[in-house]
Amino acid sequence: MITDFTIIFWIRYVKILFGQLNAVLQNMLTTTIDSPQHKRVLQMKDNWEDDSSLSTIYRTYKANENLKKLKRVKQIHLELIKCAGIINEAYGLQILMSMSSSVFIIILFLYNLYSIGITNKYDNWMKDSCGQIYWIFCFFFKIFAINNICERTMTEKHILISVILLYAANTGDILYELYEPSSSRKCRDEIHDIMYQLVQNRLKFTAYGFYDIDHTFIYTIIGSITTFLVILIQLGDKPNVFNGSNINTSMSTI
């Protein structure tokens, strides 16, 4: 459990860093909900003749600053991808063992609950059932927590709060908004390189290379648990029902 919490901590830390990186890119955007990209381009085209030399100098300075930021963002993003890969490589076997053991224990406890419900073997069946339901919830929560934090990190989503709007955006969407005709040629080339880097270095978490850790894996686990539970119920022997008459008959036979 300590190792599982360690995995969640480090992956969550990487996700926070990706969020901060997206916040830097978000601050570079000049488009808003009230002034989208196509309106800005038309407005700039109408005002080109009225631009003063001071505004031209400011745009040149702003373009150079954005170019420097984009180069740093590209380098930092690549380093974060490498860090995430190191974390996945270090904890991949642990994730595989944790997911496999959790699925096995959940199936075992669910089948045990079914047996208790059929046989009514124990007088304190409510106490035993509550305990097993508690552990089923704990193991399923662990599966959901690890897969959810990996999914959110891979999508590189970050919630940004503005004065008017609350919205979520990932790195690719922000770069697409930055790639506008009003940007300089060097900035557009740098954005193109970053987008190519995103495609070539996709962030992915796996369980020691056997399967991907994301929301899809949660659905797979639910389907697998249901399938194995149905197989155990259909192929397994029907549990014997222990009651007072059976016990008396057995004692008289002896």
TrEMBL record:
GO-annotated biological processes: chemosensory behavior; male courtship behavior; sensory perception of taste; signal transduction
Keywords for this protein: Cell membrane, Membrane, Receptor, Transducer, Transmembrane, Transmembrane helix
Localization annotation: Cell membrane
Cell membrane among keywords: yes
UniProt protein name: Gustatory receptor
Protein's organism: Vespula pensylvanica (Western yellow jacket)
Record's GO cellular component terms: axon; dendrite; neuronal cell body; plasma membrane
Membrane-topology descriptor: Multi-pass membrane protein
Signal peptide positions (record): none
Bilayer-spanning residue ranges: 91-113, 133-150, 217-235
A Pfam family hit: 7tm_7
UniProt keyword Phosphoprotein, yes or no: no
